Records
---
Amino acid sequence: MHVVLVLSVLLVIVSGSQALREDFDSHPCVRECVGTSPMTCYYEMHVETYATLSKACYRCPFNITDCEREDCIASDGFRRMIYAINRQLPSPQIRVCENDRVRVKVMNHMSNGEVVSIHWHGIHQQNTNYMDGVSMLTQCPILPLTEYEYSFVASPHGTHYYHSHVGTQRGDGLAGALIVKPSTDIHLQLYQHDLMEHTLLIQDWFHVLGGGKAALHLHARDNNRPDTLLINGVAPGDVTSDDGLNVTQIPYKFLTVEKGNSYRFRVISNALMNCPIEMYIESHSLLVIASDGADIAPVITDVLVISGGERYDFVLLANQTAANYWVYLRGLTDCSQRKTQTLAILHYEGAPLAHPLSTPNSYDQRPTDVLTLNPFNMGLVNDDPTDMHLTLNKLESAETNPRWISQEPTTKVYLQLGLHRTSSPLFNVAGLYGWMDDIIDIPGGGTVLAQINSVNSILPPWPYLSQYDDIPEVIYTRIA
């Protein structure tokens, strides 16, 4: 009896490790959406513990062609444990049409016993809020060696993404793009191409698991500074072999365009720490047409600032000389301490597949006196034609009469968001290493926590949605 039980567990784990390599790029639901009927779009996601530069990579990056092998994740050339969906980084992109029925079977094959849930960031989940994927709020997490099927209608249209909603897993690999294309695109006349490879998922990246980094930061005052920034799972840079005898480089990510054409780019920030990212492209302006999935009246900018969870769509007109141009990702706040910056290359067809001729800007050479959309930590700027900062109050909806602002709200709720140095029994013990003692005796003491209305967040013992009456009222704050 004991032998049978052991064998059954081993068989489940082995079969789970052989993840299906479903090609989401050629899925039947990737299609033109104008004039088409809704479809049911089915996907399978195998979630597992994995590694960058795994044995699937052979001699990558010292044999660069090995980096293109199936299941090989090179990232920035540093070997570390990650979480992966179908052994891809970022997780595979889903593209559907508005009002399609999306069905996703998520199978938890993580070998370290962790739970998982998948949140569909940007989907309104009307009448399906139990499919929102927020662990311990809308559902119990998916236990190891079990599976759960999400089913919801893809609405509203726009650039969205999906990610784990357990701990820091999304920053360790469990995140991918979810693009919902409209049946009627009000910006269609502004661009000719909307390519899957021009969906850019960017994020900060560590050489350890995010949970470990957070624990060291909160309990031992280690820093919370990312090691690099990834663009679609890649950060170029020098890599030294284990024996120290060979040095090579993870190559730059190339974004290909054809001169004279216009392209819709979709940018998603999956930043884990407080790391807003500035994006700008050498010799090109960005025509921003959507924010967080919602269509806006087009605005031109030179620099775009995007924070974790945000999405921006912009149109790039390939109107420069057919050559190669630098694409800059420049991290701010937590990323600024190490001057974290990652580059990619905008490549025009017909030009050599090579580095641009210009010397790239260093972190400190960020262009000045240029239009900047969503500038970091800046108050609202009103009508000043000379100001170069496009604060969000200057954006306007592309809808002439949005339905959600046509009615007077019945209730108004005011939420104050902030980072506060405060006491927490999770990280401080009064009389031993209390938070006030820390501040007095040790420079930089205390614990900085994100709060809403000066209240800390704590997960309940059961999901609010399914077992609200069983949750002690002391855990949550009522809003009248």
---
Amino acid sequence: VKVKEREYDLYMRSDSNTRGHHQWFYFSVTSEVKGTVRFNIVNFTKRSSLYTQGMRVAIYSTKKAEKAAKGELSKLYGGWHRGGDNIVYKLSKLTHELYQKARIT
């Protein structure tokens, strides 16, 4: 959901065969415009994550993969790299509201 220019809220589906847990995510972005884009994954439900200990997201870049294929970058990782700036993991307002509803019912 577009929140404002170059900022989006992303909602995850629950993992299969769980009680509503979210352990991983995947999405694709295509853009010709350079610059920073902010993605807010707003319905994480775990109280803690490796993101709080410095883990960064895995990003696949088709441009980096092409450069690796040409020998301009290491082929070790192909187009994959770790990235993301200002990663913050916290329960969102949405998740707090869900916990409150669960306590009432």
---
Amino acid sequence: MTPMTMPGLCHTGPWRVLVITVNGAQGIVSANLIGKLVEKLKTETDEIKEIVLDTLHYCMRSIPTQALGAGAIEVLTTMLGHKSWEIRGKSARDIMDITFL
């Protein structure tokens, strides 16, 4: 099963978030994709970064350990200085998701 065919993933129309359900978040975590999403935060456009940050939010609300292992705290803290308030806010939210579970 590929990530795009897993139940709970949004894969139609303009994406605002990749994961829309707990099952989708668990599918991304089970497929070990958190590290890839964290790496995408370093290279993607701002619009894609927002989607990745939202996706990580849903994944880390229940299982933050993969994000910790992927160095998400370091990447997210550098994004706190981003020019976009949306990205700064979503980065702060994601840091809270990792640290307050």
